[in-house]
Amino acid sequence: MLVVKSFTTNIPLLVNQLIAPGKEGDNPPLLRRKTVKCALSELDMKKTILLILLVSYWFDCRAQTVVTLDSALAYALKTHPQMRLSQQQIDQQRALKRGSLGLPNTELLVSGPAADRLVGGFLQAFDSPFAYVQQSRVARQNIQLAESGLSVNQALLTRDVRLAYLNLQFAQTNGQRLAYQDSIFNALSAAAQRRYQAGDADLLERVSAETRARETRNALAQAQADLQNAQRQLQLLTGLQEDNLMPAEPIVKSRVIPVAATRPDDSTTIRAAPTLRYYRQNIALNQQQLKLERSRIFPGLVFGYQNQGSPESTILPRFTFAITVPLAFWTVSSRIKAANLQVQIAHSQLAVVERNLGRDYQRAATDFQKFAESLNYYETAALQQAQTIISAATRSYNAGESSYFVYLQSLNQAFEINRTYLDTVRGYNQSVIELDYLGGQP
Q1: Are 55 and 212 in contact (CB under 8 A)?
Q2: For the stretch 290-327, what's the b/e string if a residue is b when 16 or more beta carbons lie within 10 angstroms of its beta carbon?
Q3: Does residue 400 contact residue 30 with C-beta atoms inside 8 Å?
Q4: If I label 190, which of 116, 134, 332, 413 is the partner at 20 to 30 A Cα–Cα?
Q5: Max CA distance (Å), the chain
Q6: Across 21-30, 45-54, 149-158, 378-387, least confident range
Q7: Measuring CA to CA, which residue among 392, 352, 345, 426 is closest to residue 167?
Q8: Packing angle between helix 129-197 and helix 42-56, nearest 10 degrees?
Q9: What homologous superfamily is domain 2-438 in, according to CATH?
Q10: Where along the chain do its domains lie?
C-alpha cells in the first residue's frame, strides 16, 4: 500500500542543546564556554539554527510517497517486462505442445490411368508411433523449462527489489544522519566565527570549524544524490511512477536468519536455488530430446487411396499401405550423436552454475557471520560508547577542560562509529538477502 504524506523531521536533541538558553550562572551549552566574551544573542542563534534546519532537512519536508517492501515486490512482479516475457514464453510452449502430434502434409493426387478420365486420391505419411510419444514428452519438458525460467526471473527480481529497497532505506537514514551532523558543525562554525571576531578564538579554530562544516555539507549533498538515485532504481524495478519514494521504516537489522546461514559449510543448502532447478530441468529436456532422436530409427507408415481401376473392375478402390525406412542412416546417427553431446553439455552447464553458486554462497555466508559479529560489537558496546563520548566531550568542552580541537576530534570519533554501524547494518542485510536468494527462499 502506498501512503502519501508530508512531515517535518524532529530537531535532534543535540541541536536543541546547541540553542537552549542556560540559566544564569550556568555554563552555556556546547557552543559557549566560560572564556567566550562575545556570544551570539539568543535571537541570532535561533535564526542561525532555523536557517540550518531549513537547508539541511529540506528533503524531509516534501510530500513523500511511502512504499512498503511488500507493495514494492507486488508492483514489480506484476508490471516488470521480464515477468510478462517469461509468461509469454510459457504460453508459447503450451501452444507448441498442441501441435506436437502434427502429421506431415497430406498429398492430394489427381491421375489419369486412362486417356478418357481422371481420378483422384491421397497419400498420408505417419512417423513412428514412438516418435509421437517422445514429441509429446519433449513438449511437456519445454513447458516445464519455461516455468522454471519464470521462477528464476521471479527470484532474481525479488532479490533486486529487496536490495533496491534496502539501498533506499540506507540512503534515507544516511541523509538524516548527515543532516544531523551538518546542523551541529554549521552551528559550531557560526560560533567559531563569532568567537574569532570577538578575539576569543584564533584563525586556526575558525578555519577548522568552517572546513569541517563544508565537508559535512558536501557529504550531505552527495547523500541527497544517492537518495535520488536509490529512488530512481526502485522506480525502474517496480514500475512505480510516484516521485520522492520513501521506505515505510528506516533501515534496521534484519530479524530473519536465513536457513542457509545456519549451515555455512553445507553446500547442499543451495540445491533449492531456482537457477539450479532450471538447469536440472534443462538436462531433463535434453535427455528427452535424445530419446526423440533415437525413436526416429523406427520406420514410419504411409496410407493412401487411389481409384485407378477400370470401370469393368470388380474392385474399384485402390488402397496403398507402405512403410518409410531411414535409408540415410548416417543422418539419424549424426542427430543422435549431437543430441547425446547436448545432454553432456547440459550436465556441464549445471556443474558450472553449481560451482559458481557455491562460491557465491560461501562468500555470502562468510559475510553474514562477519557482519553479525560486528553488529554484536556495536550493539553491546560501540553505540553506547559513542553516546558517552559525545556527552563527556560536551561537558569537558563547556567546562573549559578541553580545547575545541579535542572536542571536534571526539565528535568525529562518535560520528564515525555511527556511520560504520549504519554501513554494517546494510552489509548484514545484504548478506541475508543474498542467502535467501541462493537458498531458494522467497
Answers
A1: no
A2: bbbbbbbeeebebebebebeeeeeeeeeeeeeeeeeee
A3: no
A4: 413
A5: 138
A6: 21-30
A7: 426
A8: 160
A9: Outer membrane efflux proteins (OEP) (1.20.1600.10)
A10: 2-438
Q: Which residue has the cell 485402390?
A: 318
Spatial CA neighbour of 34 closest among 417, 435, 402: 402
Span 330-339, pLDDT tens digits: 888 899 999 9
- Determine contact, residues 368/360, Cβ cutoff 8 Å: no
pLDDT value of residue 242: 81
In our burial notation (b when 16+ CB lie closer than 10 A, e otherwise), range 239-272 reads ebebeebbbbeebeebeeebebbeebeebebbee
How far is Cα 1 from Cα 3, in angstroms, rounded to an integer? 7
- Distance separating alpha carbons of residues 350 and 36, to the nearest angstrom: 73
The residue-averaged pLDDT of 43-54 equals 48
Q: Which of 391, 431, 381 has the alpha carbon at shortest distance from 411?
A: 391
431 falls in which pLDDT band (50, 70, 90)? very high
